[in-house]
Amino acid sequence: MQLVKDIGEQGLLAKLQLFCDAEIVGDDGAILALQPKHQLVVTTDVLVDQIHFCDRTTTAFDVGWRAAAANLSDLAAMGASPLGITVGLALPGEVTIAWVEELYQGLFECLQQFNTPIVGGDLCRSSVTTVSITALGEVTPDKIIRRSNAQVGDAVVITGYHGLSRAGLELLLNPTLGKNLDRQEKEFLIQAHQKPQPRLDVISKLQKIDCSSIEIAGMDSSDGLADAIVQICRSSKVGAIIEANTILLQPSLFKLVDSKQVWEWILYGGEDFELVLCLPFQFAQALINQLNTGAAIIGQITAEEQVVLTDSNKSNFSQVLTLAKGFQHF
Amino acid sequence: MQLVKDIGEQGLLAKLQLFCDAEIVGDDGAILALQPKHQLVVTTDVLVDQIHFCDRTTTAFDVGWRAAAANLSDLAAMGASPLGITVGLALPGEVTIAWVEELYQGLFECLQQFNTPIVGGDLCRSSVTTVSITALGEVTPDKIIRRSNAQVGDAVVITGYHGLSRAGLELLLNPTLGKNLDRQEKEFLIQAHQKPQPRLDVISKLQKIDCSSIEIAGMDSSDGLADAIVQICRSSKVGAIIEANTILLQPSLFKLVDSKQVWEWILYGGEDFELVLCLPFQFAQALINQLNTGAAIIGQITAEEQVVLTDSNKSNFSQVLTLAKGFQHF
């Protein structure tokens, strides 16, 4: 296997430029044109080997796909359309060329769905593989989705199922867990983990429901559904009541673990990359009508500054959701 | 000393947000407005502990300053004005909080000279400290400086002295080398290494010489003066004759090492972050008049595709400049 140190920086650059936009790359910086009246949206993510991915659960292709998906998801969470990404890559010399090419193939294929180019990057040596992505998008000021826009009375919408990515990860780590699932069910959950889809389609669908008169609050659920709702409420200085009953559940999850664990995954599992949006009920319903199964109105924004999960099927069930169980990076 | 692992991601984020633009940071992405008719310029750099910096020669403040300077220099090399930077930081839990705060202080102070905010970032755990910067700038299409714009007959301009950064580094690594320098001379060279200035001032000065009718070629000399000239000539499919006589020399360099070594530093030392520009002679002269000592016309673009260094004081002296001696990252 050919290694990075065998062909050096220039050799590797020549191979990686095939994945990049030749029109844009090749100077000290890349040039991108925004549409008139659009503003720039920027988001950045750093992924480190053994922390965010490892060979046991993630191929190089998947690392690339997931890195692109996570950043595009952040753009979607702002209401923006993607313009391009930059890739900063720090690599040990012992990494194979094939690994790096597969990483770029994963980035490229995820981006290609949205006609989004790789517009630049940097390549350097390190003792640990580190992938830094900055994604650039554009949005008109009236369509910006902000965490702080939630209004008392807004509906809380999720754009799809939760807990699937975490279930897929557990299946990869512990295949015997899936003994009650058929091949298709397993594949579905593993795909949810390995090839998540950023919900840029939701942004186009928002255009269709003519909601230009309202401000939409939102973020993505990459750090978990509970985290997203709590973050939005904190930023907006409001609370929410979430009705557990209205959250649609993937039946296959209950063939893996017990109900308590399923709810852990749904609320705190993370990496589902759905959007959590707050907007008036009539618009929320119009949006749901455009989306697939899994999308739902799951609750309402309240004036009292806490996020409460209730279940109308169980009297006395009430749980306050917090950030505490969310993923801690240190 | 308090460590990163003692206060965790949220604790550290709270401290670092003091250095960031509160108006802009806090959502999944940052929003930035470009001026009408401007295009976006993006450039990215990854710096790794023990590869690009080490505690022996670089304080955390200097790492931050140099990282900001290098990225702003890339914007200047494109003819752009800065809009903001993002900072992706991967850190071992054992790094001190003080180190991280000093890093941000360095970034902040360098950026502040140009009213440029930190608009976002990411923070994660790693086994090696890694700093990924993406800088964003704006430029009108007619003012973009490209490597590929050089025309036969253009003057080759440098905006200041070369070799100083490398001299400063050598002084730090080997202080006895400076036995013939006074304190001020030493300080000057060490500052050139530790606190280089991105030449964004040159971009404003170009506006003053009314050169909107011409296309300017250029890049920065961060990888060495020879590298910059060769890269421009390759991209533009031209060559150049550089007259060694016209390159201004800092006298203190000759008190450190012999003349051969001084020329190595000037041509291949790198990290001087000056601009190398190619433009018609009358504009080149008008620009030089605006700049300080060190700036000079050092040669001319030729049709023959090689870069030749000559010295009119020495008959038969002629050397072909190549990338070969440039810094190799693997």
Key terms for this structure?
60s Ribosomal Protein L30, Chain: A; homodimer; 2 domains; 330 residues; Phosphoribosyl-aminoimidazole Synthetase, Chain A, domain 2; 7-stranded mixed β-sheet; alpha+beta
Structural class of chain A: alpha+beta
Gross morphology of chain A is globular
**Mean of all residue-level pLDDT scores of chain A:** 92
- Tell me about the biggest sheet of chain A? 7 strands, mixed
What's the order of the H and E elements of chain A? HEEHEHEEEHHHEHEHEHEEE
Low-confidence stretches of chain A: none
Overview of this protein structure:
Two copies of one chain form a homodimer. Chain A is an alpha+beta fold. Chain A folds into two domains: 138 residues, 60s Ribosomal Protein L30, Chain: A (2-Layer Sandwich), CATH 3.30.1330.10; 177 residues, Phosphoribosyl-aminoimidazole Synthetase, Chain A, domain 2 (Alpha-Beta Complex), CATH 3.90.650.10. Helices cover 33% and strands 23% of the residues of chain A. In chain A, β3, α3 and β4 form a beta-alpha-beta unit. The two termini of chain A are 34 Å apart. The model of chain A has no long low-confidence stretch (mean pLDDT 92). Chains A and B meet through α1, β1, β2, α2 and β3 of A and α1, β1, β2, α2 and β3 of B. β2 of chain A pairs antiparallel with β1 of chain B, so a sheet runs across the interface.
